[in-house]
Automatic annotation (TrEMBL):
Gene3D superfamilies: Aldehyde Dehydrogenase, Chain A, domain 1, Aldehyde Dehydrogenase, Chain A, domain 2. The lineage of its organism: Bacteria, Bacillati, Actinomycetota, Actinomycetes, Micromonosporales. Residues 37-491 form the Aldehyde dehydrogenase domain. This is Succinate-semialdehyde dehydrogenase. It comes from Actinoplanes utahensis. Keywords: Oxidoreductase.
């Protein structure tokens, strides 16, 4: 199946036999998997390995198999499903080195940031295995007619859930939403991103080893507009993570079928440095939040809003911390920042910086590609004097590029943070955490970190995570992160038959009875 030269960074354990054991999970029975796609490895811009590509007919037949498998899966107890997830958790932790290699090979990110995916996914798996049952438990509610009726709210699986996720966190985003979807009793039709199919297939194989029945999780591959659209057309709920533009297109398509969507989209996330902030601490938090994953992270920081009182001290600390970042590449823990994932990413980041500089931005650090390090390597970059006419001012760069903005006072900082249409994540650095928390309420963002740049809120998996404005709809994590994969059903039971005027009695006597009940309840202070 492989043709031509392959990337020299291919992990040694990925033998032909292991590769075949991963490829077998691509759902291609209709087409026979004759067409293939080969991603390009960011470390050397050479092909990785070919993966079969699905047709829309493959997607349809995968959905049909998932549908058949869903009922028996939902028929198991929550505990039995959780056992599978907990075994997956244990295997993931034990075998992490393999998936770290794959994530690095397919995305180029530093190994520490690949490991953060393992940490987050393991945490999500454990959380929902332990707490999901209570999030979905039947709920007894106050009935319509006290004593004569009773009612419960149930949570039923949607059926087949579609999951479409991008390449930037192929393990966490590809599997982190799948786990609550499965635990809620759904089958899943997941589309692997074209850049990172091996990471998702590795997770699929591991889930099989953990005991997931064969057809409950189908993996399809292929380009977004064709195969992604076929997924939207085949499922009962769609969980999409990606850009705002694609999210909007996906939501429109889903709307035509009247299926629910959760959309985790882009950001242009601000970090506020208050006048009382410790400049060194704020600089450390900024560097981690801006340059981790080479800035290819939905919650990463691209705008730093600094109070004039601390601007010079913070900028000096930021530049020192930035110059300490080791840009490099290779499997292993030797570097802080890896290259960008694709040529398209390199071109977009370069174009944003070139545009900003041409319009008057000042480069305080970085500002150029490093082909001497790797074909897609780009320096961590800090810009000042960024103005509204620059593409990167309010548009997502999705790269290691920070813009500094100087303001005076909290009100101006909040106004600057709330500029633009995104609202995913934000951060505030301050010695006065109460003041920072009070500011959080006024910042339009799905999550606000205080004295941390980006990871703290997303790592708090008991709390919801998601976007406002152009950053999305719906939430992952916490109770909402699993309930979105269910339909609420109300079961109301009458002890005496249909509620209404008894046969042969005038309607007025029933109305009088009802009015007496309304008045009595009001007098008793009930409802
Ligand atoms: P993208 O929207 O181009 O692609 C995302 C996924 O959608 C890919 O798997 C792609 O194949 C698929 N796709 C493309 N067109 C489609 C279509 N018409 N129908 C269905 N599926 C389609 O995004 P990208 O550039 O690959 O990823 C980066 C973006 O994702 C950034 O904007 C980033 O902020 C965002 N993101 C958001 C979150 C979050 O949780 N909010 C997390 C990670 C990334």
């Amino acid at each position: 199946m492989d043709t031509g030269p392959v990337s020299a960074h291919r992990p040694a354990w990925l033998t032909g036999a292991r590769l075949a054991s991963l490829r077998r999970w691509v759902a291609v029975p209709a087409s026979g998997g004759k067409t293939t796609h080969t991603p390009i490895a960011p470390y050397d811009a050479l092909p990785t390995v070919a993966v079969p590509v699905c047709t829309p007919e493959d997607v349809e037949s995968a959905a049909a198999r998932a549908r058949t498998a869903q009922e028996p899966w939902a028929g198991l107890s929550y505990g039995a499903r959780a056992e599978v997830v907990l075994r997956f958790h244990d295997l993931l932790v034990a075998r992490q080195d393999e998936v770290l290699d794959l994530i690095q090979w397919e995305t180029g990110k530093a190994r520490l940031h690949a490991w953060q995916e393992v940490l987050l996914l393991g945490t999500v798996a454990r959380h929902y295995a332990r707490h999901g049952r209570s999030y979905l438990a039947d709920r007894t509610v106050r009935p319509a007619v006290p004593l004569l009726t009773r009612a419960r709210e149930l949570r039923l699986p949607k059926g087949v859930v579609g999951i479409i996720a991008p390449w930037n966190h192929p393990l966490y985003l590809g599997v982190g939403d799948l786990i609550p979807a499965l635990l809620a009793g759904n089958a899943v039709l997941g589309k692997a991103d074209g850049q990172t199919p091996l990471t998702l297939l590795w997770a699929r194989a591991l889930m099989a080893e953990a005991g997931l029945p064969e057809n409950v999780w189908q993996v399809v591959t292929g380009d977004g507009p064709t195969i992604g659209s076929a997924v939207v057309d085949a499922v009962d709920h769609l969980c999409f993570t990606g850009s705002t533009a694609t999210g909007r297109a996906v939501a429109e398509r889903a709307a035509r079928r009247l299926i629910g969507v959760s959309l985790e989209l882009g950001g242009k996330n601000p970090l506020i440095v208050r006048a009382d902030a410790d400049p060194d601490l704020a600089a450390r938090g900024t560097v981690e939040a801006a340059f981790a994953n080479s800035g290819q992270m939905c919650v990463h920081i691209e705008r730093v809003i600094v109070d004039a009182a601390v601007y010079d001290a913070f900028t000096a600390a930021l530049l020192a911390a930035t110059s300490g970042q080791r840009l490099g590449q290779g499997l292993g823990y030797g570097y802080d920042i890896g290259p960008l994932a694709t040529r398209a990413q390199l071109e977009k980041v370069g174009a944003h910086v070139t545009d900003a500089v041409a319009k008057g931005a000042t480069v305080l650090a970085g500002g150029r590609a490093r082909p001497d390090i790797g074909p897609y390597a780009y320096q961590p970059t800090v810009l000042a004097d960024v103005t509204d006419d620059m593409d990167l001012c309010l548009g997502e760069t999705f790269g290691p590029v920070l813009a500094l903005h100087r303001v005076s006072g909290d009100a101006a900082a909040i106004a600057a943070a709330n500029r633009g249409r995104h609202g995913l994540s934000a951060a505030v650095f301050s010695r006065d955490t109460a003041a920072a928390e009070a500011m959080a309420r006024r910042i339009r963002a799905g999550a606000v970190n205080v004295n941390d740049g980006a990871g703290l809120a997303i790592g708090t998996v008991e709390a919801p995570m998601g976007g406002r404005g152009d950053s999305g709809l719906g939430r992952r994590h916490g109770p909402e992160g699993i309930r979105r994969f269910t339909d609420a059903q109300t079961v109301a039971v009458s002890r005496l038959g249909p509620i209404g005027p008894p046969p042969g009695r005038p309607a007025e006597s029933f109305v009088n009875l009802g009015n007496r009940q309304l008045r009595l309840l009001r007098r008793l202070g009930i409802r």
